[in-house]
Design a protein that fits this description.
Number of strands of chain A: 19
CATH superfamily of the largest domain in chain B: TonB-dependent receptor, beta-barrel domain
CATH topology of the largest domain in chain B: Maltoporin, Chain A
Largest sheet of chain A: 6 strands, mixed
Shape of chain A: globular
Helix content of chain A: under 10%
Radius of gyration of chain A: 21 Å
Number of strands of chain B: 50
Helix content of chain B: under 10%
Largest interface: A-B, 78 and 90 residues
Oligomer: heterodimer
Chain lengths: ~270, ~800
């Protein structure tokens, strides 16, 4: 936001700022394991994707891991070894996530066992999902802005959650589309407006996920690094804090999910 | 060890008092004292040399233009000299204590004549102070200005050993210190955030500024409160002789200054105001989404003074400034400083000078969303109210003693969030914090012999936090985690929570090698009790100030500096080389992902470590003649080491620049035309660079080595600016003088990266940010730099009458 204001100021003062792609030399570290694991209270199969970091200047975006052994278990002693599918993805076959249970991940890769755990917390129902028209300003595009309202799942605690937005079944997945929030600045219920407009007739689906605090911190860190300007107005760049181990990137999380769909109308 | 050092200083001071008393009994001395002022405006002049050439004894006027010189009974010719002014010799028969006020006239530079003035222009060599820079405001006014806005802070940042956090920032970073380790004060009142427009401009309107001095080291005992540096800005007092007005019209702002006597030669005032008008153009737009935006800053400086009599002078001054962004009545951001100073100079005798000051300063900001379910108003700020007594005792020509006391009351309001009607956002408030800071100091400038001049002193500072407040106890007092609070202690109103303080010795010495050169050495310890909780390099108005408390220890800095000073060609050229080493304890840094704005337990977000810095600074300066300016070079290294950051290994802060070169030249072609130019080179900022990339949820992300913070450099920065100031030909015969200044910033269009981010570049074009509007042919993860100023021309019209 600050950077946006500053660039806007520059433009208002008659300056022309510009962007340029740089060619820099990058040192590369040894590959680091990246984990994307999610289990929900919806029917499976659930996926754990494993990959490693790649050299900066390679055109390849990631390097899938195909030879790991991935196990998910829960606090009742249920356990399942995931099947490898493709592109680093491992899937469960019979497991069903349940609210209140804690799930354990074990990844055996390169002679090391990486472990993590996550508790599947409840999420409250979506109370309202509606759009309002906003005129275009310098900061926002004009159009129909979607607002979501819900009550806190547990008013005595700080609840953390995440939204995913789909339009015509396709996920919004840009740099600015990772939206996480906490409800302690609200009083028992909250309303959140998404930062981009829709058009009349769009079919929009919103999913709301419950998050553990470590997942919330991870996504906060992830958004910070995705949007980092390299440290002038943002903090010095650091990797998002994994809940697996310090030498690993990514996260394993158990979430409950609710969703609601709306067709944008006047 | 520590107490021993203090004891030695105290013994020296005691010895000095008894010594001077003895001297007074045996040798009858009289004192000549008074004020030195500008003949045209009546402004007091700071740093005028008052000198007896025969005995080679003298002094300089203090920051209020006052001098006092005690000499044996005899006839003397005292010379008053000051750069840019005609020297004046006054012959007096000193057989009683006398008051002698002097007015000096400005020197008019003749066309074909270089003014050579050898009179005591060697102050930089002879004075005991080192690591101190005085900025010539007129030179800054002639400098090329960014968008036509003359900025004294931009001038200060060109001095060796002083840096900015980056282009377009107003932080003043001195000798490896961070921005919050420089105390910036205007008429002695603290300016907590010196920026306008997020840092493009500073709060100092050049029309209202008379004098600016910055201490990089060898800080005298009368100054304190910050670790690295003191930037002391003085406002003009106003013309005591006649009405005058000056101003300017620039591309983004206009300025107007009015000054006049209230009672001729006794009392005067000055009002100086400035406002930007980028938004006024926007108002003309028929587009309602644009013309409703507000975007401006203004500032007003006011000052009035009254010379009650020979012994009493009263000054009242104030600064008010505010930035306002208001977008479509929806999103609002405002911030500003307010300061007020009431000062009373009193002479108990012509050898004892007292300056009593009452100060108030306030910084606050507001962020608001005006309507809707998420509407709120968020305010935050801090206030400082101080009283100071500063005595100067002119014991004899060889000893000048400063002593005093100050007390400051601090109130911090970290955040108050209040929802508007219909908003679902709850009330949120971080409790106000209260503290008092005391300081007691004494220092003597002691001329031991013609060769040795020594200044020694000590400052004792004390900081107390007091209630009402809740103080939490953590399971592990060193690694505080929010979930591990074991106990809460409630402190009632005015109950002292924590008291911290200590001694700050200050010593400097000059050894005169010959008439034109000297060696200087200094040591100072400083303590700092307030710090900025900022996780980014460029200071922002929303950064939060936090006081030292039960968990955050006061910062302690020790600096030694050694310098060689030499002047050439009758003081036309000044050169100096200084080296320093600085050690800083209890430096704060922040945990990854720290919530610095809204945390009620800021101590859980903070880590503490140490820092050190060393470097060499070279300066070649020419103050007189038609071509003036300086070349400064510094080579330095700054490191920080904080457990919990970078795996506990030392790292460079972003602002660490190995090499830093500034070339500042101004050439007066003739009476009408002056050219100015700057050239700047600096090693690129220390930054982290990715050591790979990975994919998470379909996004490409840069991977950073957690043990290699700031291990790389941005590309080197360099830039040249040029300007020309043209006086109107009609000026010669008119009272009203006008001029045009044309500036070009970044003449050779160096594309200096302002920031570098790592992200997907679509089809090789970094400007494409919406993949829905183009056919994606390629998607590459690349470094993308933002270049802020490619070439910025500007023109300003200035007038004066």
């Amino acid at each position: 936001m600050m950077k946006k204001i500053i660039l806007f100021l520059g433009i208002a003062c008659g300056l022309v700022s510009c962007l340029e792609v740089l060619e820099l030399n990058h040192d590369n570290s040894d590959p680091v394991l990246v984990v994307e694991g999610l289990i929900t209270d919806k029917p499976g199969p659930y996926t754990v994707r494993l990959s490693t970091t790649v050299s900066f200047n390679l055109s390849q975006r990631s390097n899938p891991v195909e030879d790991a052994i991935v196990t998910i278990s829960d606090d009742l002693g249920n356990q399942e070894i995931l099947n490898y599918v493709e592109n680093g993805r491992y899937e469960t076959t019979s497991m069903q996530g349940m609210i209140g249970r804690t799930y354990y991940l074990d990844v055996a890769y390169g002679g090391v066992n990486y472990k993590s755990q996550s508790t599947l917390l409840p999420v409250s129902a979506i109370d309202t999902l509606y759009s309002t028209f906003e005129k275009a300003t310098r900061f926002i595009e004009g159009g129909y802005y979607l607002s979501i309202g819900a009550k806190s799942a547990n008013p005595n605690l700080v609840n953390y959650f995440r939204w995913k937005v789909y339009e015509a079944d396709s996920l919004y997945n840009g740099v600015n589309d990772i939206m996480v929030a906490r409800d302690d600045y609200f009083e028992g219920e909250f309303v959140f407006q998404f930062g981009y407009p829709f058009e009349i007739g769009d079919t929009v689906k919103v999913e709301m996920y419950s998050l553990n605090k470590d997942a919330y911190d991870y996504y906060q860190g992830f958004v910070t690094i995705l949007q980092s300007d390299g440290g002038l107005f943002s903090p010095p760049p650091v990797n998002a804090p994994s809940n697996i181990s310090e030498r690993v990137l990514g996260i394993f999380q158990a979430c409950s999910v609710v969703s609601e769909e709306v067709i944008i109308a006047k | 060890m520590k107490s021993k050092k203090t004891a030695i200083i105290l013994i020296l001071i005691v010895h000095l008092f008894s010594g001077s008393a003895v001297a007074l009994q045996t040798d009858e001395k009289f004192t000549i004292s008074g004020y030195v002022r500008d003949a045209e405006s009546g402004e007091s002049l700071i740093g005028v040399s008052v000198f007896d050439p025969v005995q080679s004894k003298g002094t300089v006027t203090n920051i209020y233009g006052f001098y006092s010189l005690s000499l044996s009974s005899a006839e003397y010719t005292i010379r008053f000299s000051f750069i840019g002014y005609k020297s004046q010799n006054v012959t007096i028969l000193l057989n009683r204590n006398q008051t002698l006020d002097i007015e000096l006239s400005t020197e008019v530079l003749q066309m074909d004549e270089l003014v050579v003035s050898a009179d005591k222009m060697d102050k930089n060599v002879t004075e005991v102070r080192m690591s101190t820079e005085k900025l010539n405001i007129q030179q800054v006014i002639n400098m090329p200005a960014l968008m036509g806005e003359v900025d004294v802070i931009r001038g200060v940042q060109l001095l060796p050993g002083i840096q900015s956090a980056g282009e377009g920032t107003t932080g003043v970073l001195v000798r490896g210190g961070s921005a919050d380790q420089t105390l910036i004060q205007i008429d002695e009142a603290t300016v907590f955030n010196p920026s306008h427009f997020m840092g493009f401009f500073s709060v100092f309107n050049p029309d209202a500024i008379k004098d600016l001095e910055i201490y990089k080291g060898g800080i005298p005992s009368k100054y304190g409160g910050r670790l690295s540096s003191i930037m002391d800005v003085r406002m003009k007092e106003g013309n005591k002789k006649k009405f005058g007005a000056s101003g300017g019209i620039g591309l983004i702002s206009s300025r107007l200054t009015v000054e006049a006597p209230i009672i001729k030669n006794k009392s005067s005032f000055i009002v100086s105001a400035r406002r930007t008008y980028a938004d006024l153009f926007a108002k003309l737009s028929p587009d309602t989404t644009i013309n409703k935006n507000k975007l401006f800053f203004y500032d007003v400086n006011v000052k009035a003074n009254y010379e009650i009599n020979d012994r009493n002078n009263l000054f009242v001054s104030g600064y008010f400034g505010r930035d306002v962004f208001d977008f479509d009545d929806e999103f609002r951001l405002e911030w500003g400083n307010k300061t007020g100073t009431v000062r009373w100079n009193h002479l108990f005798s012509n050898r004892l000078f007292l300056n009593t000051t009452l100060l108030h300063s306030k910084f606050d900001y507001l962020i608001g969303i005006d309507s809707g379910a998420e509407s709120f108003k968020w305010t935050s700020g801090l206030e400082e109210t101080s009283g100071k007594l500063d005595f100067t005792f002119f014991a004899n020509p060889n000893n000048q003693i400063d002593f005093g006391y100050s007390a400051s009351y601090h109130k911090f309001t970290p955040a108050v969030i209040s929802p508007s009607e219909g908003s679902l956002i709850g009330n949120y408030r971080i409790d106000d914090l209260f503290a008092i800071e005391h300081a007691l100091y004494v220092g003597n400038e002691h001329k031991i012999s013609d060769k040795w001049l020594v200044a020694y002193g000590v400052r004792y500072s004390l900081f107390q936090n007091f209630g009402p407040a809740d103080i939490y106890t953590y399971q592990n007092g060193n690694d505080r985690v929010l979930s591990e609070i074991t106990d809460t202690t409630r402190y009632s109103k005015r109950e002292v929570i924590k008291t911290q303080g200590g001694i700050e010795p200050r010593v400097s010495a000059r050894y005169q090698l010959n008439n034109t050169s000297s060696l200087k050495v200094s040591y100072n310890r400083t303590r700092q009790y307030l710090q900025l909780a900022s996780n980014s390099s460029a200071g922002l108005p929303i950064d939060r100030w936090v006081p030292s408390d039960a968990y955050i220890k006061p910062q302690i800095g020790d600096q030694v500096a050694l310098g060689y000073f030499k002047n050439w060609s009758d003081n036309k050229f000044e050169t100096s080389i200084e080296g320093y080493y600085k050690n800083m304890k209890n430096q704060i840094d922040f945990k990854d992902g720290a919530d610095l704005l809204f945390s009620k337990n800021i101590e859980t977000e903070i880590l503490s470590g140490k820092a050190w810095s060393y470097g060499i600074e070279l300066l070649l300066k020419r103050n007189i003649g038609r071509t003036t300016g300086w070349i400064g070079y510094s080579i330095s290294k700054t490191r920080r080491q904080v457990p919990g950051i970078n795996g506990g290994r030392a790292y460079s802060p972003r602002y660490d620049r190995t090499h830093d070169i500034s070339l500042v030249v101004s050439h007066e072609l003739n009476e009408l035309i002056t050219f100015s130019g700057n050239w700047i080179f600096a090693t690129g900022s220390a930054v982290s660079r990715p050591k790979g990339k990975y994919e998470f949820e379909g996004q490409s992300v840069a991977y950073y080595d957690a043990l290699d913070r700031n291990g790389y450099r941005m590309p080197n920065y360099h830039r040249m600016d040029l300007s020309v100031t043209i006086q109107s030909k009609k000026n010669m015969n008119r009272r009203c003088k006008s001029s045009w200044n044309i500036s070009i910033y970044n003449v050779y269009m160096k594309k200096n990266p302002w920031s570098i981010e790592y992200r997907d570049v679509i089809n090789g074009d970094p400007n494409i940010d919406d993949t829905n509007k183009v056919v994606v042919q390629s998607r590459e993860f690349k470094p993308v730099s933002t270049i802020l100023f490619k070439l910025v021309p500007s023109i300003t019209y200035n007038f004066k009458f």
